[in-house]
Design brief:
single chain, three-stranded antiparallel beta sheet, 2 domains, 12 helices, globular, Aspartate Aminotransferase, domain 2, 12 strands, alpha/beta, Aspartate Aminotransferase, domain 1, binds pyridoxal-5'-phosphate, 11% strand, 440 residues
């Protein structure tokens, strides 16, 4: 699509001001009955010339305006340290922190005393894995095997690998072409030496949902502790720590329309899961995570979880509709487009697409600079190496390099979905002709 055509589509969006209901005549039958979300006032309106379309909600989500509103007083008048229990201002902030903790706990079926606040899921994963291993070893537990999966986020894989230097035995299990860990593969790997198993709930590149209830049961049968990285799952699928028999579960604020820089680790109380802390300090968070709590971020995270618990399901339905709009358009324009791990259940906003025609994802992105998508997970997309997640599901490096990750979210409109698909398709056509010409 040429630039004027692209702006023309935006013009259609502009017609109804800041609302995105049924803009541009694009109707979406599967989500038409759902109330549209107003465009958050702090997001750039689509009517701006050269306004990008954001489809990278796995990397981070925009902060919901209701979250910003909830946080504001805690940046301004209510600035006290929540640990300052001697005075009224500290106690007021502590109350807000505890209310937020309750919302976080409710989202995953936990109790407030089981939520340890961290700086994000990276820290929560490190604390869960290293903390569990080190505590057990300090108590003379002879078990050394720590199992995880090849498609985990780097912070899980590296935490498990780091423990090899402390005498633990890392075991990295393969997944199938559908991105799923087969129960029999896990069963075969779990032995009496297994201390901990860490399996992500939803993958950050291919969006597939692991069957945690089935996998958790296997881990429990083996008598090991079970950790899940639920950073990409919270607010997108229902989560219940009891149902999945999790002892530890990691969350991130910025994947649920909350602020960046905050997260949490669920730590089971009954039976009690014991961890060694990563940091020495003032002993906040039940001695597991020293450091002054960032109250505004905690309050924002709590509000984001409260909204997710109420609206997550509605969001998923509407986002699935947006994804259909996007995919239908793209498939019409690009025969041979491949959806990776198509056979597996996946979160509604995710698509991981390999483009045909021998063109690189990089070339497509360069031809569609206003469409914000990625070639892999955010932290590895700057690397030249093709995604290890895609290689783990069997893609050759060349196919991995021709792959884009799409992440739609709460604030993606049908018009944006249509516009992004048309723009990417045009960029793909241009890249294919350029390649054809070069090889003539
Ligand atoms: N785990 C998964 C599955 C993720 O997608 C991410 C973020 O990309 C993380 C962990 C790290 O989360 P945070 O940015 O909160 O440290």
């Amino acid at each position: 699509m040429t630039m004027p055509a692209l702006q023309g589509l935006r013009g259609m969006v502009q017609k109804d001001g800041r609302s995105w209901a049924m803009v541009g005549g694009i109707k979406n039958p599967s989500c038409a009955h759902l109330a549209p979300h107003p465009i958050p006032p702090h997001l750039p309106p689509m009517s701006l010339p050269n306004h990008p379309v954001y489809l990278d909600n796995h990397a981070t989500t925009p902060v919901d305006p209701r979250v910003i509103q909830a946080m504001r007083p805690f940046w301004e008048a209510q600035f006290a340290n929540p640990a300052s229990a001697e005075h009224v201002m500290g106690r007021a902030v502590a109350e807000a922190v505890e209310a937020a903790r309750e919302h976080i706990a409710e989202l995953i079926g936990a109790s407030v005393a089981e939520i340890i606040l961290t700086s994000g899921a990276t820290e929560a994963n490190n604390l869960a894995i290293k903390g569990a291993a080190r505590f057990a070893a300090s108590q003379g537990d002879p078990r050394r095997r720590i199992i995880t999966v090849a498609t985990e986020h780097k912070c899980v894989l590296e935490s498990v690998r780091d423990l090899a230097q402390e005498g633990f035995e890392p075991v990295i299990l393969p997944v199938g072409a559908d991105g799923l860990l087969a129960p029999e593969v896990l069963r075969a790997a779990c032995d009496e030496n297994t201390l901990l198993v860490s399996i992500m709930a939803v993958n950050n590149e291919i969006g597939v949902i692991q069957d945690l209830a089935a996998l958790g049961a296997i881990v429990k049968q083996a008598g090991a502790a079970f950790h899940t990285d639920a950073a990409q799952a919270a607010g997108r699928i229902p989560l219940d720590v009891g149902e999945i028999q999790a002892d530890l579960l990691s969350l991130s604020g910025h994947k649920v329309y909350g602020p960046r820089g905050i997260g949490a680790l669920y730590v089971r109380r009954r039976p009690r899961m014991r961890l060694a802390p990563l940091f020495s300090g003032g002993g906040q968070e039940r001695g597991l995570r020293s450091g002054t709590l960032p109250a505004p971020l905690v309050v924002g995270f709590g509000e984001a979880c409260r909204i997710a618990a109420i609206e997550g399901l509605l969001d998923s339905g509407r986002i699935a509709g947006q994804r259909e709009v996007f995919l239908n358009r793209l498939r019409t324009e690009i025969p041979g487009l491949i959806i990776n791990a198509e056979a597996a259940p996946r979160v509604s906003g995710n698509l991981n697409l390999t483009f045909p025609g021998g063109v690189s994802a990089q070339a497509i992105m360069e031809g569609a600079p206003l469409v914000c998508v990625s070639t892999g997970s955010a932290c590895s997309s700057a690397e030249i190496e093709p995604s290890y997640v895609l290689q783990a599901i069997g893609l050759e490096p060349a196919a991995a390099r021709a792959t884009l990750r799409i992440g739609m979210g709460r604030f993606t409109s049908p018009a944006e979905a249509e516009l992004a698909a048309a723009t990417l398709a045009a960029a793909w056509h241009r890249a294919v002709s350029a390649t054809d010409k070069a090889s003539d």
